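From the shared-data thread, chain only:
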Amino acid sequence: MYFIKIFTSMIFVTFLMSNSIETIEPKLALKMVKKKDINFISAEELKKGITGTVVIPLNYISDYNILGKTPCSPLYTCVETFQKIIARFDFNKDSKFIFYDDSYGINATTLYHIFESMGYKNIAWLNGNYSKIIGLDPNQKAYNGYLKEIEEINRLLENENEMDMIKEYRESLSQLKRKLSILKPLLLIQNIDFIEKNSLNGNSITRELSYEHLSDVTELSLAVDNLQRYGSESNITIIDSCGMVDIVGNKYGNYLPGVDFLNWKSLVNRESQGMKSKKILIEIFNKLGLEKENQIYTYCMSGSEKAFYMSTALRIAEYNNVKVFTGNWDTWIGDTIE
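Structure, as tokens:
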């Protein structure tokens, strides 16, 4: 087997990190709601979310210039941008961060990788979106039932002329609203607010950085060259995580040569709205013929979130040598042409 060492021209501080990804299932996550120093982080601008959620949408921290390039590659965001946002929330340094979204986890797993690369170690990913958590909250079920009763009584009131019945309906409405007011603070899913991007101006803080699971365009180019040169004898594996519409429909009508294709949607458990189990993930990757000793790169030229999702699945399945290319076609084509 041939071997090639991949080098980047970047100078950075590294430290040893665990390759494992901590995944939390919804039932366990619910027990952690309102616990001290547990921070639930939404990677999307959700109107409703887990009680106490802090919203850090990916579009707040993604840095692209007018040419579509990431100026701080291979980071998804520039260090200064990210650190100012984190400083704005004044998190306890010993806090635990649990990331979630309403998109099967593609945004949450991306945010997980960003925090990880910035040196945060006490982090986890909630495997399942917030809408599924609603069904696990017994108070929410009762709350929804009262709302339906109120809706029905209001409908009856519109067509009622008898004063005695109107009085009875109104009394019932008053009682139901009191029940709602008691239950509302106990709900695990609440309306959540988010801070506007232009107000996130905290002081930057210094942390060690790691690119252990991130790849820039130079490194990926060397990996592609190695794969093309040595073929099946190469110790490089590159996985295109895009769906076929992204591959065929991109403006260049092309993809990286010599890669394996695995649509990120094949990793999704439709019922739980999260990722499939570790056992099933292992079966999927075994079927693809992946070698654990190989250096694996994941990418999706329509956006790196899907590549981060693929990387998460690989690491859960105990493929430890995984890196994500954080660029897109504009980054790849622009930089390789230069």
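The chain has twelve helices and 14 strands.
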